[in-house]
């Protein structure tokens, strides 16, 4: 096991940092030893690929880096295929592994560089009302508690298992999870631009018609990019040369826009944002339809620029209201010559989650995220105002892994928070797996 004293950690988006002793275990035995050694000195936070915007990781104690725990193998659960994967593997690793075996995941994250352990810890997800979060696809897990003891958890452990399936790293360190998967299937994918009012009025019908769908809105445009997907028995024809060239062109435009043009625009000429947004759909998508394997269709996005990203899950009944509040706020700010959002507003739809702290716990949601460049002027002021707009919707809950403001205001929105904290205290009575943000801002353990 490698130990790096006083390691200088920074997250992927470069908005968080800390200095802490870093342990890099290479297996379950070393993970248990790392927990015991680190616990003698103080607090511990598990570390994945550092992709979170929220301060889940920073600590003055120790970090346990799971990056060397990347093993996986095929297994089964109740006679169906499953994959047992160590927490440090990335979603990309997992997708490639399932593809190579003719299998696929349902509701994986679009962003593939997230560690599996990190995705599970925050109940990250893809889209589809017939499914829920990646945490809900977990049927078993191996957890190391504050004493270094190993717990093999499954549905037989009842509510404790549902607490561990979205734990924010506060119950212990996850060594591995076993996830359900399915034989690969094909999707018929439609990309369409539809008028905003038509989309928002037809959200219930879209939910009934398409098993998987996503919405994109480029600010200051009058239509939404709708990605509509449903299963099909049609074969995958493979990409033609023209399709591959279009994909390469779209990728190049998206990469250049998100990593160079938009950051420059946000910094020096935000007033040009509306004009550029008119071009964005033409550069980012090609209307039409195609058939593709699910594992490829779910991961259509290839360019992942560093950005600001805040996300709220709202009950399906409030989806239109939440969208109109979001669009209205952006347009009101534009009338005051302020343009803090210069990338996209994106929505996915997922079914109820069993995980106690999942934003989708016990109800289906529309998850809306607002993405803007790191150089965008007034981004903090916008996100504060948007937080107020979302929190005015009674059932709205934030995504734990995205940028968060006012975390103290969301505790009461989780009906199982007290049950989660009781399980947390039983596994970690000394609070070793907390940091200041979790202890004070989220869990509010001190009056």
UniProtKB/TrEMBL annotation:
Keyword presence, Flavoprotein: yes
Any transmembrane segments, and where? none
Report whether Metal-binding shows up as a keyword of the record. Answer: no
PROSITE patterns the UniProt entry points to: FAD_PCMH (PS51387)
Going by the UniProt record, its keywords in alphabetical order are: FAD, Flavoprotein, Oxidoreductase
Q: Which residues form the FAD-binding PCMH-type domain?
A: 15-184
Q: Which InterPro entries match?
A: ALO_C, FAD-bd_PCMH, FAD-bd_PCMH-like_sf, FAD-bd_PCMH_sub1, FAD-bd_PCMH_sub2, FAD_lactone_oxidase-like, Oxid_FAD_bind_N, Vanillyl_alc_oxidase_C-sub2
Name of the molecule in the record: FAD-binding protein
């Amino acid at each position: 096991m490698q130990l790096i004293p006083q390691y200088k950690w920074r997250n992927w988006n470069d908005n968080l940092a800390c200095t802490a002793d870093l342990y890099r275990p290479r297996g379950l035995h070393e993970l248990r030893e790392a927990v015991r050694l680190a616990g003698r000195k103080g607090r511990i936070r598990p570390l994945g690929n550092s992709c979170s915007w929220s301060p889940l990781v920073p600590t003055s104690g120790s970090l346990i880096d799971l990056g060397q725990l990347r093993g996986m193998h095929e297994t089964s659960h109740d006679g169906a295929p499953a994959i047992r994967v160590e927490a440090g593997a990335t979603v990309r690793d997992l997708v490639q592994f399932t593809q190579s075996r003719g299998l696929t995941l349902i509701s994986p994250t679009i962003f593939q560089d997230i560690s599996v352990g990190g995705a599970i810890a925050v109940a990250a997800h893809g889209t589809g009302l017939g499914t829920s979060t990646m945490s809900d696809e977990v049927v078993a897990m191996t957890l190391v508690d504050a004493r270094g003891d190993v717990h093999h958890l499954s549905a037989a452990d009842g509510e404790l298992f549902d607490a561990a399936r979205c734990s924010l790293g506060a119950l212990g360190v996850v060594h591995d999870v076993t996830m359900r998967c399915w034989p690969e299937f094909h999707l018929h994918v439609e990309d369409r631009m539809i008028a905003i009012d038509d989309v928002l009025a037809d959200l219930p019908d879209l939910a009934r018609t398409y098993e998987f769908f996503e919405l994109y809105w480029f600010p200051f445009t009058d239509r939404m990019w709708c990605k509509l997907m449903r299963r099909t028995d049609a074969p995958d024809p493979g990409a033609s040369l023209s399709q591959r060239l279009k994909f390469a062109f779209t990728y190049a435009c998206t990469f250049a826009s998100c990593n160079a043009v938009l950051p420059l625009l946000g910094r020096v000429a935000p007033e040009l944002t509306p004009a550029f947004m008119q071009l964005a759909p033409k550069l980012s998508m090609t209307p039409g339809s195609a058939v593709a394997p699910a594992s490829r269709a779910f991961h259509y996005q290839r360019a992942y620029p560093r950005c600001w990203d805040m996300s709220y899950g709202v009950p399906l009944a409030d989806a239109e209201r939440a969208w109109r509040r979001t669009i209205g706020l952006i347009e009101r700010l534009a009338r005051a010559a302020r343009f803090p959002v210069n990338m996209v507003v994106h929505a996915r739809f997922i079914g109820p989650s069993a995980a106690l702290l999942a934003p989708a716990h016990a109800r289906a949601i529309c998850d809306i995220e607002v993405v803007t460049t790191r150089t965008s002027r007034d981004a903090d002021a916008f996100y504060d105002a948007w937080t107020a707009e979302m929190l005015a919707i009674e059932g709205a809950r934030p995504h734990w892994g995205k940028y968060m403001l006012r975390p103290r205001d969301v505790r009461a929105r989780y009906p199982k928070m007290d049950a989660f904290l009781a399980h947390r205290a039983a596994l970690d009575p000394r609070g070793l797996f907390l940091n200041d943000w979790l202890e004070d801002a989220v869990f509010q353990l001190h009056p």
